[in-house]
Amino acid sequence: MKILGKVLGAIVICVILALLVLRVTGLDPHERIPGLWLSGNVVTTPVADWSFATDVQTVKVQTNSPFLLPHSVTTWCIVYNSQLYLATSGAAVRSWPRNVARDPHVRLKINSQIYERTLSVVTDSAEREAVLQTRAKKYAQKYPPPAGVNFTVYHVTPA
């Protein structure tokens, strides 16, 4: 029984140390593999014009999971009317949209810059369709939408 306690204690200490190291160094997602904390330079100035992200194919999004650990993924980004939007299909089965529904505060990584922002679901049908048309132009050849896929569109706003 003493040995089991020591082994479990050692495992707990190793997990805590690993999480502390990852907190400092970050663990960015890679393509379809999720990560934890995003690393990069935090931008504190407001962004009024997101046009610089027009040619960026994907951004990394860090959400807050219910387990007190961050959950970061890579997703599509769309710039429409100088505003930044994120779009995803399958929001009902993916973790990050559920995390955003619970806590809309996120960290976005574009290139090596981190932006602390809030996501809100676009409910205006005209705005949503315009963003999705812009998305179709940007990603159509590489990522054609399958028939019947429903996209959730998020507007990126200041935190």
Structure, described:
With 159 residues, the chain is an alpha+beta fold. It has a single domain, classed as Electron Transport, Fmn-binding Protein, Chain A (Pnp Oxidase, Chain A, Roll), CATH 2.30.110.10. Helices cover 30% and strands 32% of the residues. A hairpin with a 2-residue loop joins strand 5 and strand 6. The longest helix has 24 residues. The chain is elongated, with a radius of gyration of 18 Å.
Summarize the structure.
The chain is an alpha+beta fold and 159 residues long.
Write the layout of secondary structure elements.
Blueprint: H1 2-25, E1 41-43, E2 58-64, E3 70-80, E4 83-89, H2 95-102, E5 105-110, E6 113-121, H3 125-139, E7 151-158
Parallel strand pairs: 1-6
Antiparallel strand pairs: 2-3, 2-5, 3-4, 4-7, 5-6, 6-7
CATH class: Mainly Beta
CA-atom Rg in angstroms: 18 Å
Can you give the mean pLDDT? 86
Which descriptor suits the 3D outline?
Answer: elongated
What structural class is derived from the secondary structure elements? alpha+beta
**Relative helix content:** 25-40%
Number of structural units classed as domains: 1
Beta-strand level of the residues, as a percent range?
A: 25-35%
- In the CATH hierarchy, the architecture is Roll
Ranges where pLDDT stays below 50 over 5 or more residues in a row are none
* CATH fold label: Pnp Oxidase, Chain A
Largest sheet, strands/sense/barrel: 6 strands, antiparallel, barrel
How many runs of DSSP E, i.e. beta strands? 7
List the strand order in the largest sheet: 2-3-4-7-6-5
Terminal CA distance: 50 Å
